Predict the 3D structure of the following.
Amino acid sequence: MHGRPRKPLNPEGIEDKHSIQKSNELRDLQSQLLRNHHNKIYTTEALKLSSKLLAINPEFNTAWNYRKLFVQHNLNSSQANQDLIKSILDQELEIVEIALTRNCKSYGAWYHRKWILNKGLSSLDHEFRLLDKFLKADPRNFHAWNYRRFVAALKNVPEEDELKYTTEMIDLNFSNYSAWHNRCAILSYLLVQKAQGFDSKEKVLGEEYEFVHNAIFTDPDDQSGWFYYFWLLDQTITPDAPVLVSSWPVHSSDLILSLDGRLDGCILSPCTTYCTNKGYFPFILYFSENVEGVNSSSVNIKYMFMKNEDISWEPLSTTNARYAKAWVAYLKFPDERNHSLKAYPVEVTVGHSQGIMSYSRSNYKFPSQFSFTVRIDEGDCKEVGREEFVWLDDRFSDEATLEDLNPMLSFDRLLIGQANNTETSDWQMETIVSQIDLFRKLNDKIGKLALARLLIAHDAMMSYDSSSTHKKVNTEEVLKLFTNLMKLDPSRSRYYKDQHSLIAIEQALLKLFSQREYSDMKVCLYYRDSNARYEDSLCVGLNNYSLSRIGSFEYLLWVRVLDLKYNELQSIEGLEALQLLSCLNLSHNKFRSLTALEPLRLLRSLRVLDISYNEIGLHSIDTSRYLYSSRLSDTIVTICENDVIEETDCPETVLFFKGLQLIQLDIEGNAFSNEKFRGLLVKSLPKLKLLDGEDVN
Amino acid sequence: MGELAAEKHVQYIISIEKKKDSFEAVAMEHLRMNGAYWGLTTLDLLGKLGAVDQDEVVSWVMQCQHESGGFAGNIGHDPHMLYTLSAVQVLALLDKLDVLDIDKLSNYVAGLQNEDGSFAGDIWGEIDTRFSYIAISCLALLHRLYKINVEKAVEYIVSCKNLDGGFGCTPGGESHAGQIFCCVGALAITGSLHHIDKDLLGWWLCERQVKSGGLNGRPEKLPDVCYSWWVLSSLIMIDRVHWIDKDKLAKFILDCQDKENGGISDRPDDAVDVFHTYFGVAGLSLLEYPGIKAIDPAYALPVDVVNKIFLRKKDSV
């Protein structure tokens, strides 16, 4: 029941006479229809009864089915001649029209009409006129729009004509999201097809910008044109093809590997050593968008100790997707021990043969080439020190110098960008610049949001220019706009806050890598704890940044210690790319559930985790329950082989920890961390030594 | 802000059964199975499922099953996916799935899948992503998802995705919050949410909140309590629900209560019905309103019911 005013309740069960009569009549019609249906009675009288019923209650679906049976019955009958069939079908179209006049949103009625027309025996001439009537009464009736697309396809109406129809509808009243939607769908199709008159994206988009500006600037509060505008913007700025944005190891680096088994996951000198007892090191490629098809034919690796075809690539994805931004291959350590300290080259070419493809089906088309060297260092690793990693501020000192970070500096777009030579056409830049000028004049919410997105796009375009890498000139203005929007549109403040965080973290990381403005930032510090296992590790600290969301993972692939405590994070989507990460502090954030930490399960090197003082177990609704691979579909999940667990325990909790190789874990200050649970944890994590700072043995 | 008049709503739902004679009640007889699902789920969320005669409900539900295996909206009507899911949900709610001939039922549902992965609503062939959701949810609850081509089913849903991030009934159809729930729900259940641009869709969805705090289903439409479910559950499944003002939404829903006679309406001071009563209470459940059981955003059943179906101790399987 929609939009009907509430009336005072009738005294117990007493309806007025008229109403009783009406409902009795309807009840009789409905039961007679069912009787006729069951007994397969298709007399004229029985059919009339169903017409009468559908005119009153078009939602009575079985009556439509009954009529379909009637039509079939007649079409199949031996006496069927063309005139008879035509009159039967016309009669159906007529009753549909009557039913739609009663309820223009009746699924059953609209479908009955489609079913009749699909027989291919009726004229289609009347259909657009009928639609005009219904779309005039309600220009947003999505049933009618769906039906219009159906008829247009049936009549082979050219897309261009339907595009014109949306122009007419929008000219009548621009506040018609349905028309904008259809325009977007048709135009996007015509652009992809490069249909005649639509082969110049520049020209087409230019006209569309003009068209949608009228709507937005006439009434900036009306949302109808917003989404269309942002679609145009997206069409203008999105690169045609995915781009490789970073890797680990980086180009021209010298990686020192240690096989010393005692130092599983050791993280000594910051950027270019890797110790593991596994005998493999990760090689990570990070793309600008989700791609598929990274394999030994699309990526060629020349390396003495492994044949290219033996190298297997995996998408770093928390779902079953074949797509990911980050892809990893694990490469063998050099096995010629005698030649330690000899550097062996690894030469990589990406995308010289086809295969890497974005989710939107565009091919990677910027073949690039780079190389690094690896050598084994047997003697240099230290004795195992204290296992514990202490997250206290006084353990972190001595900011990393630019020289320390130098090995990371060459990884980025500077190198790959040149190879990519992503050309930003003049018209794209000109469009963005003129849009920026235009939207500076609009002080409404949508004006500010559009401006922020335009400025971000502008910076992104500039960064394809290799000369200006690491400079994002608009950052401060964008941050200010989002801060402003939080106040202007408080209901959605956390949307703007998330956008703000993504820009803020990028800003912090870019400053880290740039010479200027560096001194005031303390983002990258050494861990000083003499004789501890992790002594001299380089730690990226983004604590106390008021971040509600993180991103910019392409700058962080090398990071092994990451401190994100005292933020407002509730998600770590994308963190799975950081394959070297050993120690992670997520304490004092807003994580609501363990499922939100699912990306951690892909981090093979993770040993130290602090998730204390979050909101885990506090909420009845888990907002990340379905975000990653669903466990709640076909299979019955079995939990825990021992008897410790009760029905009341959250089984997902145990499932989560089972896959991790943690040595140190902090969970206190969460609703779920009771004694019983801690006992269970110790059982699920055989390598665990410290739980909330206490020895588990 | 008013409190939830839980007791009144329970009484209202129980009283509906006694008002079978009104014109509205007669006009809605064909979807009584949906009504049973809305009413009983509301009662369960409010902890009052015991107020109905459960055996009577089960017996009536089973009388609605057609020889094809599908369920009708009422006794003697034709079967349809819309009512088949409600029947399964009602039986799940009452922990009575074992009364079903599961293979017969799941063959009916699986038999409605088309070559392109889409699903028909019944033998007459109407296609809609609503039916894709129904098939996937229904078969998952019965542990029979393997009976359909899930990959193709997902592919078809993705073909209905729009450039605003939302989904329509069929390819090219306009995005609509109800349709978005169906598609996001189906993708969630099949572990396929990576097909969704969560930021794009999340922004479209959070812009459904209007000044009064209520949510609409499409741009420039009026708010309606039912979208508290469609929009909110979708936002939760893609983990973007913090992008709306939850307190304002809770207030809007509470303002739509008929505090005197029970029930919740689409907008304040409109006539109440069981559909909006369910969506209002379910919405409040998603908002973690105290005293209401938690509901699962994908299956639209209480979390404990869903957990019971999917998470079991090894030895009890």
Q: What stands out?
A: The two ends of chain A are 63 Å apart (CA to CA). The longest helix of chain A spans residues 17-38. Chain A touches chain B through 94 residues (CB under 8 Å). DSSP finds 19 helices and 20 strands in chain A.
